[in-house]
Design a protein that fits this description.
9 strands; globular; 7 helices; 5-stranded mixed β-sheet; histidine kinase; two-stranded antiparallel ribbon
């Protein structure tokens, strides 16, 4: 509990500091991106075009970084809506597959009749992408990556988690067959800016975002890792009650119906 409190205070402090900078930076990036878009329309020269494109890629990377910083500093409040987790993952599958690259085999093991969860859709996707990118990076020579969903009922069959109320939850698990982590790394993974990746590759904010998303959604995150064997990360997210089914609107958002 002490460590969790320290973690929360640290995230708060770093969040306040970075949030303001990220916000202003994002505004500047918008100007850069818009100007580059305008330039591409009037440029005929192939060499100029390549320069513009490389500037666009750099700006995109910057935008991604500021998005991560903003999400993490909670300048963007979560906007929860009712979603079927399988539908969220399915709708995002192409991007996840691209993120995996050629060497990593992505398997989806989505439970049929999985409960609906009330989460911020884009933040759920961001969390999943962060987990996938980490798993991929832990398997430079390739391997397998499995995303599993399932229904979990806390309070039943003796299953409890100290900080969570008994009731229905959905588990979303990302398991890889990568490098795994030594205990001293595992202890620090949720620390903002903690990274073992080289400069320019890692920000150390991926798992901070995942942690913030899960805890603010009223859930719990668990990391199991064995050096040389792989890592399994499970997000437990509060779900709708059993008796409730949900139907989907066109935009993928669900509204509950009682049957
Ligand atoms: P980043 O990916 O930018 O380094 P993260 O917060 O996402 O930041 O991760 C922090 C660190 O945790 C990583 O640098 C890595 O050392 C370790 N890590 C996270 N996920 C995994 C994984 N699936 N396998 C091995 N190590 C991992």
């Amino acid at each position: 509990a002490q460590a969790a409190l320290f973690q929360a205070q640290k995230m708060e402090a770093v969040g306040q500091l970075t949030g303001g900078v990220a916000h202003d930076f994002n505004n500047l990036l918008t100007i850069i991106v818009n100007s580059l878009d305008l330039l591409t329309r009037n440029t005929r020269d192939a060499r100029d075009m390549r320069l513009i494109e490389s500037a666009q890629r750099a700006a995109e990377r910057g935008a991604k970084l500021t998005q991560q910083l903003l999400a993490f500093s909670r300048r963007q409040p979560l906007q929860p809506a009712l979603h079927n987790p399988n539908t969220l993952i399915g709708g995002f599958e192409a991007i996840l597959r691209r993120a995996c690259g050629e060497l990593v085999k992505l398997q989806l093991a989505l439970a049929p009749r999985v409960r609906s969860i009330s989460v911020d859709g884009p933040q759920f996707e961001a969390a999943l992408l962060n987990l996938i990118v980490n798993a991929r990076d832990a398997m430079p020579e390739g391997g397998s990556l499995r995303i599993t969903t399932g229904n979990v009922t806390l309070g039943e069959n003796g299953q409890t988690i100290a900080e969570l109320k008994p009731g229905p939850y959905v588990s979303v698990t990302v398991a890889d067959t990568g490098s795994g982590m030594a205990p001293e790394i595992l202890d620090r993974v949720f620390e903002p800016f903690f990274t073992t990746k080289e400069i320019g590759k890692g920000t150390g904010l991926g798992l901070s975002q995942v942690y913030g998303f899960v805890t603010q959604s009223g859930g719990h995150i668990k990391v199991d890792s064995t050096p040389g064997q792989g890592t399994t990360i499970t997000m437990l997210l509060p779900a709708q009650d059993n008796g409730e089914e949900a139907v989907e609107d066109e935009d993928g958002t669900e509204r509950p119906i009682q049957d």
